[in-house]
Amino acid sequence: MNALIISAIMGVVMMFSGILLKQRSTIRGLALAGLFISIVLNVMELYGFHLFRINITNMMHFDRFSLFFNTLSMGCTFIFFLLSAKEMEKVGVGYADYFALIFFILCGIILASSFGSLLILFLGIEIISIPLYILTGSDKRNLKSNEASLKYFLLGAFSTGLMLMGITLIYGSSGSFTIDAITTPETKPGVLLIAGLLLLMFSMAFKVSAAPFHFWTPDVYDGAPTVFTSFMATIVKAAVFIAFIRLFYHAFGDIHDTWKFIIAVITALTLFIGNVTAVFQQSVKRMLAYSSIAQAGFMLMAVLALNSIGSEGILLYTTAYCLSTIGLFAILVKMKDFTFEGFNGFAKHQPLLAAAAVVFLLSLAGIPLTAGFLAKFYMINAVISSGGFLWLVILAVLMAAISVYYYFRVIQAMYFKEGEAQAMEVSSGFKWVISFVAALIVLLGVFPQLLFSWFYF
Amino acid sequence: MIALLLIVVPLLSGIAAFFLKKENSAKSWALFASIVTLAVSLLGLTVLNKPELLQFKCNWLPGLGSSFSIRLDGMGQLLCLLTAISFPLIFITTWHRVYKNAHNFFALMLLSQAGLMGVFLAMDALLFYFFWELALIPVYFLSSIWGAERRIAATFKFFIYTFIGSLLMLVGLIYLQSLTPDRSFDIKSFYAIVLNSKTQNWIFWLMFVAFAIKIPVFPFHSWQPDTYEQSPTAVTMVLSGIMVKMGLFAIIRWLLPVLPSASFAYGEKMISMWVIVGMIYASLLAWRQDDMKRLIAYSSIAHLGLMVVAIFSETEISMQGVMIQMFNHGINILGLWVVVEILERKYGTRKLSELGGLAQKAPAMAMLFVIVALANIALPLTNAFVGEFMMFTGIFTSPISEYEMITVPAAGITIILGAIYTLRMVQKVIYGNTNALTETGTDIGLNEKLVLGIIVILIIVVGIYPQPFLDLTKDTTNFILNKANLVPLLKK
To answer: Which of A420, A269, A270, A250 minimizes the C-alpha distance to A335?
Structure first.
């Protein structure tokens, strides 16, 4: 609750800061300070400190899981600001507005991760989506950016329609918006409920870019300004996943058997299409777009398993994935050429950045000693513990092996090939932050309990 | 303490080596660190050979049922000793080679040593998997950065191959963990699992593929000759001398005792058959090779195949033979690579057709080379004879083999072929007339004499008096065979 209200206030404050403050560095500082305050207040809420007392019974539940996730996602946003806030200047004129929109998205993330009612879920998803449509099209003079924005908006609106329809049907069958009241262990799922469930599942699958609802992803991620792609491919996607799991755990957990096969098929398709298509990409940015689809396939395994290992794992997975992808995008933004060849010989010119990029790529590929490995390990473990679906697990690891191909192409270009990779000058502060992120990934890969012990106290 | 030091010394010295910018200091540092590791390993075998020093356990991932648990048993001692001996020898052999960014090269070498030690020491399945991959990553970078012309494609093939294998193994390990009574990755819990044969069968394949790729067993071997050829020789030594042992080792420790009925069902009847086909095929290919690196690579496939057959015949004598042969093969192939390294550095070629007459120009090298080559053929009085003799005896007398009248003669053919291609190599390199290239040849220097001398001494000493090695691994062998628990299976 604390963080939600502070983020909303910060969103408004940032909107006006564009008029009142002339210095861009001041605007940036203000945004960082505001975000820092909301992180601190959110952590304090974990320890039982409430700034506001508002009756939100049945509408929202700020339980440990959601508060913890909010801390993680705001922490990742903080790192995103540190690495890329300066790059936003180059996108367009409304520098302060971008921060305002991101703060509004954070509000949506908090709603989506803490909802107790389908209405709040809808609100959260919409508050996330609408600022994203704007951010995608924020490079106004770029045709690709405009195209991406329009495409995203039309398809997003369509999927929102599906979601509303699903909510209506579920309300019709159960008579309640409260997620805990929708099903009970005795529930015999009727046609209305199943239809509503499927519509909700498809709209959520659209939002997390799971196949076969992924077609918007590569174009939108490619067309959007790279700094914002970094944000929407990581933190936003993670939040929607948390909403996905929360919805299906609370609302439909009791009728798990009726829908888990459909999720398994969606997972398999997502893994297959994401990984196989990524192999053929020539641009690193587009490769990362497909890789984000592929990674979504792994995260869907937590929705499929729906057990405690899965929910623990999704926290680790989202953290590992967000940190690695944000770091990689932060380096990508500095490059002159986004193709694989553009990275040739990068290690010679920027040894530190190249080493950090290796850590990020290894983590995405799921190589031991990085957080990405344990994240994948958790997902596999969750599915195996829930019983069944071994074909899916084996498919998943084979796809992980394919993912090595395209992630390692970047490593090969950076280290093994000769070339003159062109990169912009980077400040020493940037280098410090990127080394910190890389170190964090390795640390979480060896001692994941650093994350969980904090979660469980 | 000893167990922990075996991992920590190469690991920390490897990380430190990244920061040594001077080439010579990095080189000396790596040699020093590897000698310290060797000393630790020898201490663990002799003075400090006490159970409490040889194991170490602490909490690591309690939520996942995994702990940092390492222990040196007899087999571990032997393979750690092999690893510890090999690295100083490799560093001395390649002393005069100049590497670009030498500090990174030596750092990665030491890190791969740490990974290998970890594989041989781990007593926890997840930890084992961790080290299994950790040994691979530095080798991938070493080969891709410092290798020959086609290095990127060759090592990438190698990486993808082994990575697919290890991921399948990971699925198998997680599945096994979910079946353990206390949901733990500890090796004791794994040994306590009782499974019906249907479940065993498909987990067996998940895990065996990983090990088969690493060894490599025909038909999973196609990465190997390319990778050996394209890697810098120092890395080829690590790959062929030690890393391939990971696969054999893993079958013995993680497959036979955990999945006994599946190992019995597939090992002797199916795997042994196709391994033998692969051995003959590899031997014939070795015969036709012109490049020494590829010749040795194929010869290695044949030698390791025999060990796989011996493991699955599951008798005490064949298993003991495998143990000692794992050590011997590492030493012998290291000796062959040393010769290749010398020839390549001196004459710039590894092609048999371009060499010749070196016995006149480099008599010391020729003598030592012949001994190593004879060991590769497993002539009596050399170390390999002991191992191969025991393995053949075991395969022939094994109570579970049904086709020993086919397997033993067929495997015997590969020994003959081994003699043919090894002697052909010796003949082409050191006998005959000198040509324009070898006309100006000189004999080897002191450090090369030292390395080859140590290897030859090991070959002869183990060949004449193998008993200490056999005593070392006796307990492990009996333990594994007890776990594999053949008697009830045979009665069925």
So the answer is: A420
Give the containing element (helix H, strand E) for B56.
Answer: strand B55-61
The model's pLDDT over A14-49, given as tens digits with 9 standing for 90+, comes to 999 988 888 888 999 999 999 999 999 999 988 888
| Chain B nearest C-alpha distance from A122 (Å) | 35
Nearest CA in chain B to A396: B167
Q: What is the pTM of this model?
A: 0.92
ipTM field = 0.89
Task: Quote the number of domains for chain A.
Answer: 1
What is d(CA A66, CA A453) in angstroms, rounded to the nearest whole number?
16
End-to-end Cα distance, chain B: 45
Confidence of residue B492 (pLDDT cuts 50, 70, 90): very low
Cα Rg of chain A (Å, integer): 21
Is B70 in contact with B118 (CB distance < 8 Å)?
yes
Give the phi and the psi of residue A19 in degrees, each rounded to 5.
-85, -40
Which residues of chain B make contact with A405, given a CB cutoff of 8 A? 160
Residue B68: which residues within 8 A CB-CB, separation 6 or more?
B56, B57, B58, B59, B60, B124, B127
A215-229, B238-252, B314-328, B429-443 — which is least confidently predicted? B429-443
Q: Which residue of A has its CA nearest to B157?
A: A405
Domain that holds residue A423: 2-456
Residues on chain B bordering chain A, Cβ-to-Cβ distance under 8 angstroms: 61-64, 126, 129-130, 133-134, 137, 141, 144-145, 151-152, 156, 159-160, 163-164, 167-168, 170-171, 174-175, 177-178, 206
Alpha carbon distance A430, A432 (integer Å): 5
